[in-house]
Amino acid sequence: MIFVLKPGHTEQDLQHLIDRITEVGLTPHVSRGEERTIVGAIGDERKLIDLPVETLPGIEKVVPILKPYKVVSRDFKKEDSIVKIGSVPIGGRKIQVIAGPCAVEGIDILREIAGEVKALGATVLRGGAFKPRTSPYSFQGLGEEGLKYLAAVREETGLPVVTELMNIRHTDLVDKYADAVQIGARNMQNFDLLKEVGKLKKPIILKRGMSATILELLMSAEYIASEGNTDIILCERGIRTFETETRNTLDINAVPVLKGLTHLPIVVDPSHATGRWELVTPTALAGIAAGADGILVEVHTDPEKAVSDGNQSLKPKKFAEMMERVRKVAEAVGRTA
């Protein structure tokens, strides 16, 4: 249920409402828009039955949220949310490009890749210190050493860093080094992990599971938001279908559908969607044309020697060509890159 406050409400009115919601055992979430302040009461709405909600001071109207996801819904907040990774806003008019290697392999190669992507227009550096791999014998990441490399390169380049969190035990460690935490496709419905990152004061990039519906993605985002962290960026990274020519099938439909259902920003990952470097640029452009707020791209200076996902990584020259086309498509749809 959401409470829409009158334009002239006082801070005392707002606090009184928050107190009453808390008293009945629900969790209040405040959203201050350009024209209205609304408060969501999250939890079992039956607890509000005996509360004279419409007679509380400062209340303009009370609106039930019928969707199972509350805080992340467009009903709860009409305006698009902007989530900042460091000082980089995801959402709004500018298309942001998050780029870097699949895995952190060493300080020198990470420094080289970071320098290349920054020079070509990327605004956030990505790199995995912990790697979820299909085979237990594949490279699993450098762990804390990799996180330290990311932090060191951030200091050198000024690029904020994104890395994946796989295990609750590593939450404090990743939180210490990263500017944003990625929850990968395989952990999209790891609800204990989602609740844990919901307690962080840090942006979360939530990737859609390989067989997850849009509703399931939004419900996973709600798990994070229900713990207090609404700085969530959704990522469409392709879903598993019967098609075998690509690693996954990029669900372009999901971008405009999500835009209608949620106020959260949305990015597209064409690298994991296709698994083939030559398909990364076309699918990235399609995602931007469909309304995505950014793209997540894997770049490597020597993909043949990459320890992870070399087949889907762009060389800097190809990344430069992609960026040129990204700017043109962004301009065509009324945005910048």
Question: What distinguishing features does this structure have?
Answer:
single chain, 337 residues, Alpha-Beta Plaits, 2 domains, 18% strand
Task: Describe the structure in your own words.
With 337 residues, the chain is an alpha/beta fold. The protein folds into 2 domains: 2-63, 2-Layer Sandwich (Alpha-Beta Plaits), CATH 3.30.70.1140; 83-332, Aldolase class I (TIM Barrel, Alpha-Beta Barrel), CATH 3.20.20.70. It is built from 10 helices and 14 strands. The chain has helices spanning 11-23, 107-119, 144-157, 171-177, 191-197, 214-226, 254-261, 270-274, 277-290, 316-332, and strands at residues 2-5, 27-32, 37-42, 59-63, 83-85, 88-90, 96-100, 124-126, 161-164, 180-183, 204-207, 232-236, 266-268, 294-298. Helix 2 (107-119) runs parallel beside helix 3, helix 5 crosses helix 6 and helix 9 (277-290) runs parallel beside helix 10 (316-332). The longest helix is centred in the C-terminal third of the chain and has 17 residues, at 316-332. It starts with a strand and ends in a 5-residue tail after the last helix.
Care to give the gist of this entry?
With 337 residues, this protein is α/β, with parallel strands linked by helices.
Describe how the helices and strands are arranged.
Blueprint (H helix, E strand, L loop, with lengths): L1 E4 L5 H13 L3 E6 L4 E6 L16 E5 L19 E3 L2 E3 L5 E5 L6 H13 L4 E3 L17 H14 L3 E4 L6 H7 L2 E4 L7 H7 L6 E4 L6 H13 L5 E5 L17 H8 L4 E3 L1 H5 L2 H14 L3 E5 L17 H17 L5
Parallel strand pairs: 7-8, 7-14, 8-9, 9-10, 10-11, 11-12, 12-13, 13-14
Antiparallel strand pairs: 1-3, 1-4, 2-3, 5-6
Helix pairs in contact: 2-3, 5-6, 9-10
